[in-house]
Every structure is written in structure tokens, then in C-alpha cells.
């Protein structure tokens, strides 16, 4: 059945374009969820090294500084956990990892062919195939 699908995608430009569009969406979703996890890690590292909004929390909002810090850290940890969970779901539910590995293999072959074109004939003759 896979062969039938591959043959159909090879023949039908409409279905091939739709598949390419949906693979692009899968990759975009994986990138966005991984960026979200990285941003939450960055926010937690900033909270660790900088006193968070001490002036705003104490003077304007009338909050205790330690409770504000605890609230921000717990929100950062919850966001990080949610982002990692979303990334795991995206990577298991979509064919993005196999699609990206296929693109990487194609790109590596293309680069290898370009390098081989530029090699001198003496070096090409020494290469074992």
C-alpha cells in the first residue's frame, strides 16, 4: 500500500503539494514547541540570577517579594513542563522527525556530489567506490 501512495504522490502534483505543505506545518510546530521550551529555560535562568521586579512587586502592587519570586518560578516551571510535553506529543504524533532526517540525508548527498565535482582527477582516481 505504501508503494501505491508513493506512486500517487509521484504522479499527482496537487497531492504532492498538499503533503509538502502539511510536512512544513509539522516542522513549524516542532520548531515552535522547542523554542517555547528554550524560552522558558531562559526565563528560569534569568529569575535565578536577577531579582525579579522588586520595585514593581513591592511598591506598586503591594506584594511580598518572596511570594512574587515563588509565583514567577512556579509559572516558569509549569510552562517548561507544558512545553516539553507538547514537544514530545508533536514529535510522536507527526512524521516530522523522519521528514527532517530525510531532508538531512538528501542535503548531505547533494553536498557530497558538489564536493566530488570539484575534486581533481588525480584524487578522484584514488577514491574507492
What this model shows, in words?
The chain is mostly helical and 129 residues long. It folds into two domains: 2-94; 95-129. The protein has six helices and no strands. The protein has helices at 2-11, 13-49, 54-60, 65-93, 96-118, 121-126. Helix 1 (2-11) crosses helix 2 (13-49), helix 2 (13-49) packs antiparallel against helix 4 (65-93) and helix 2 (13-49) packs across helix 5. The longest helix is centred in the N-terminal third of the chain and has 37 residues, at 13-49. The two termini are 34 Å apart. The mean pLDDT is 82.
The ordered H/E elements are HHHHHH
Separation, N- and C-terminal Cα atoms: 34 Å
User: How many helix segments?
Assistant: 6
- Estimate the mean pLDDT confidence: 82
Supply Rg.
25 Å
Percentage of residues in helical conformation: over 70%
Low-confidence runs (pLDDT<50, min 5 residues)?
Answer: none
Main sheet summary: none
Shape: elongated
Class by alpha and beta content? mainly alpha
Number of strands: 0
Strand fraction band? Answer: under 5%
**Overall number of structural domains:** 2
